[in-house]
Amino acid sequence: MNTTILLLLFAPLAGFLITLFFGKKLGKTVSGAIGTAAVAISFLCTLSLFSQINAGETIATFKLADWFSIGNIKINFSFLFDQLSVLWLLFVTGIGSLIHLYSISYMHEDENMHKFFSYLNLFVFFMIALVAGSNLLIMFIGWEGVGLCSYLLIGFWYKNQDYNDAAKKAFIMNRIGDLGFLIGIFILGFHFQTLEFLEIKALLGKDLITPSLLSIAALCLFIGACGKSAQLPLATWLPDAMAGPTPVSALIHAATMVTAGIFMITRMNFLFDLTPEIQNVIAIVGAITAIVAASIGLVQNDIKKVLAYSTVSQLGLMFLALGLGAYEVAVFHVITHAFFKACLFLGSGSVIHALHGEQDMRNMGGLRKVMPITFWTMMISTLAISGIFPFSGFWSKDEILMTAFHANIPLWVIGSIASIMTAFYMFRLMYLTFFNDFRGTEEQKHHLHESPALITIPLVILAALAAIGGAISLPGNSWLNHYLAPLFKKHEAHHLDGQAYMLMAIATVGALVGIGIAYAKYLKKKEIPVADSEVQGLHKVLSDKYYLDEIYMATIVKPIYMISNFAKKYVEKFISKAVIGLGGATYALSIKGKKIQNGNIGVYLFAFIFGMVGFLVYVFVIRVK
Amino acid sequence: MDISIVLIVLLVGALVTYLSGNKFASKTALISSIAAFGATIISLNAFQNGEDLDVNLPWISQLNINFALHVDGLSLVMLVLTTGLLPLIILSGFITKFENSKSIYALMLFMGFAMAGTFLASDGFLYYIFWEIALIPIYFIALNWGNGDVEERKKAILKFFIYTFAGSLFMLLAFIYLYTKGGSFDITKLYALQLTTTEKTYLFIAFFLAYAIKIPLIPFHTWQANTYSKAPAVGTMLLSGIMLKMGLYSVLRWQLPLTDEVAKAHVPYIVGISIAGVIYGAIVTLKQKNLKKFLAYSSLSHVGLIAAGLYSLTFEGFQGAVLQMLSHGIVIVGLFYVVELIYSRYNTYEIKEMGGIRIQDTYFASLFMIIMLASVALPTTFNFIGEFNLLYSLFKVNIWYAVLAGTTIILGAFYMLRMFQKVMLGGETKSFKKISKQESIVLIIVVGLTIFFGLFPQPIIDLITPSLQSILTQIK
């Protein structure tokens, strides 16, 4: 088992180093193959661990080495392979492998393709550390590490300063969350004298910490989760992150990294169970994020931006579930979302590829016939995300809404409205992209083509998973809930009664309404969204994203710049003068100094020291005698 | 053998370098500094085998002043920092053609000698002499080999000199006072003195002025940016990499143990000033246009955090401070070297005249980026270990200290990434000659050390723990 774990951990790191140092010599295809193989090896190792754990084998903790000690707290490079981490790794490395494969074709035109694979491998390595770490600090290594890779990959085309801005914004906003995370770590470390998850869990019942401090710790961790998983108010970096190449959007900014916040809270579920008021905060933040992001998604015209807002919104739903204590439901939606959102992003990449970089849906249309595989795989995923029976999203979203219904009706209403909006904007995306006539240039039309096999194979696999993925947790007979049961506090499952069927029916009708409106507008009436300059009213508020960026700019960034300029121009001079003015002796010295600024001040210093020595000798020798 | 061997190697090295003439000076200096580092490592090894390396020779016996050097884990790591960085700094000088190079390289070694002595001295008088002597070489290095307008340079260097010199005078007064009380400068005797709270308060303030200027803490920092920007790169590295650690080290070695309960009573104020420096430094850094001044202010911010950890009077704070002194020393040398590499091509320190370098030299960009990320304390870099310890120690005192000082991880990322973007990214604007293998050696060593000690910091922690424990007991 230890060999498997070592291989699982270090195959992507080896891939990173090989492609980094030898990538240029090895060439694009070989680099791509090595990068893909590295992640595939991790996937196979995870499968092996999964089968062992599924067969009831004991959970493995694996200590690699000591790291450092701080006071009495010992921190090790150690890893925990239990149901949760292995399940998470399964889809991280599984989807990771597919996206690596896809990238071999997608990135082939790029001269820095080996670098791309190198960063992608590094990302997978850090993601594994994040998920498999057995203490908060190893998780934090992974946490900041994936943030770094995200920064590198958003800014992959670094000639464009707008992309660099987006990369920088992502890193800094994440760091705001990271400060919260760190403070949370400090609180827990100080009171429990350990950062190991299992030890903290065991010590929680022992009254080592006051309930209010525990709540603050939970809140701090949640702030960290908000940064990484793009929840309000730290959400605005994720849509900008679409500046990165599309496979990055699929892997990092949809399927894996952005779910790290959900993973962290699920990992620390025993803590959050004890802080119901923070759980309420999580549920409310999640619900608000879900509906705000969905409403912005209604009017976006950039195909990747639609998907980005959709991701933020779906993450919000997952946080809603977490806040209601339904961890297994959140995990379920993370998994199905990973399938269909990865597929949607890769599909959009396929479209962008065919149109030579065009991302505006107003210039698309009619692609259904030329790109049938892309179309059908995206259609399946769209049905899944819209919550249409029997696709995977139907089951997972239904469980979230059902949980919300039983906990708090307003939350259920908000979640349901967000879901209706989702169905609308996703079908709007599909109709604008694939139906009616092509609206691009003749030149583009001439070159339209279905993407090659390396692109379509991952699409087909992901679409299949998006279709049937719901099977892992069917109501009443959930493999997933059973598998994860040892991790969570026991709570009663909702019965599959009349009410449950009614809720499913309501959700389905809602989705159909959303789809129907999209159908009427964009397929029947063939509406094309107006040019940005003609947008007005509420529509404008939405397409300007509630002016969140502008508000942050005006209230935070600009003031900091102003203070910085002010301090640089005035405060520094003031302090300089004040300090000098304070000491008359200093002033006198400076007069003397000016006289001898020919470079002889060293002599002066020597004279001073030896004079002082002489003085001391004189005084004390006489005194001694 | 004893520890004076390291001092002797440095002093003899300085002499030999001067005598070797301008042609061979740089190489002789490099070899001498490596020899000193070797002697340090041998001493370290001997120390860990339980050998006694202390020196105690009568010097001015009528006055009971001794040439006394004491070796413990703390002084050893500071010595390793000094003799370890010295070869790197000397090597950094290789990209610049110095006039009269035998003098500058000899001065660098001589400064290494004085700084090493400061870290080792256990006699207050000897310590003071070393402390002051270290000023002489840096004064001449900055004055004679610095850049920019000569008159402006003179003004800046003089300001620096007067500042630090004035601060030191207060320390001298403190030592003289202590001597009159106990009749000795020996550190253990000074530790054992029974002083009243009033006496301790005055001592605390006197030491504080000396160290606050050297470190520097706000509002005593205004000499720093100008001096850094006027001094040649090697001088800036000596200042920021090693010399400012003299102040931090002295807080730990002299100020806190001698003024225990007064220090304790002042925790909120001094930690407050330090944290204010962390934030103020970061904010002022943001809008700097000159790359050297940019690094000076970022250093002000980082060093403020180290001081805050020291004045938190917790074990974790001490540990974090020592670790961060080392990691900051390594990284700041790397950063100033990067600046000098760019300067050697563009002949400017102005950020707005840079850009589009990464596209021309990705190798250089990668190394720079790793050092930049270390400076923002990314986990698995050495700086993360230090920063984590420091913030944790502040948390132990008061959660708000940790939150306020913790903004450094946000602001630090803000100004560093912003600078990196302006300096390195974007399309090609000016042509940049790729750095050679020889030029990259310093960067590779810096990157290697940063990552290595980020992964394996424990041996250093084990080495310093006993000394820090005993200092802590002395305070309590």
TrEMBL record, chain A:
Keyword Transmembrane attached: yes
Hydrolase keyword on record: no
Residues spanning the membrane: 6-23, 30-50, 86-104, 116-134, 140-158, 179-196, 208-227, 248-266, 278-299, 306-324, 330-352, 373-391, 411-432, 453-480, 500-520, 574-591, 603-622
UniProt keywords, alphabetically: Membrane, Transmembrane, Transmembrane helix
Membrane-topology descriptor: Multi-pass membrane protein
InterPro entries: NADHpl_OxRdtase_5_subgr, ND/Mrp_TM, NU5C-like, Proton_antipo_N
Protein's cellular compartments: Endomembrane system; Membrane
Residue span, NADH-Ubiquinone oxidoreductase (complex I) chain 5 N-terminal domain: 67-117
Sequence ranges assigned to domain NADH:quinone oxidoreductase/Mrp antiporter transmembrane in this UniProt record: 134-422
UniProt-listed Pfam families: Proton_antipo_M, Proton_antipo_N
Gene3D superfamilies in alphabetical order: 1.20.5.2700
Coiled-coil annotated residue ranges, if any: none
Chief localization: membrane
PANTHER family xrefs: NADH-UBIQUINONE OXIDOREDUCTASE CHAIN 5
Name of the protein in its database record: NADH-quinone oxidoreductase subunit L
From TrEMBL, chain B:
Source taxon at top rank: Bacteria
NCBIfam families in the record: NDH_I_M
Location(s) in or outside the cell: Endomembrane system; Membrane
Repeat among keywords: no
NADH:quinone oxidoreductase/Mrp antiporter transmembrane domain span: 122-408
Protein species of origin: Flavobacterium difficile
Protein family membership: Belongs to the complex I subunit 4 family.
Protein's UniProt name: NADH-quinone oxidoreductase subunit M
Ranges annotated as spanning the membrane: 6-21, 28-47, 67-91, 103-121, 127-145, 157-180, 200-220, 232-252, 267-287, 294-313, 325-343, 363-386, 398-420, 441-461
UniProt cross-references to InterPro entries, sorted A to Z: NADH_Q_OxRdtase_chainM/4, NADH_UbQ_OxRdtase, ND/Mrp_TM
Keywords of the record: Membrane, Transmembrane, Transmembrane helix
Membrane topology designation: Multi-pass membrane protein
Pfam families: Proton_antipo_M (PF00361)
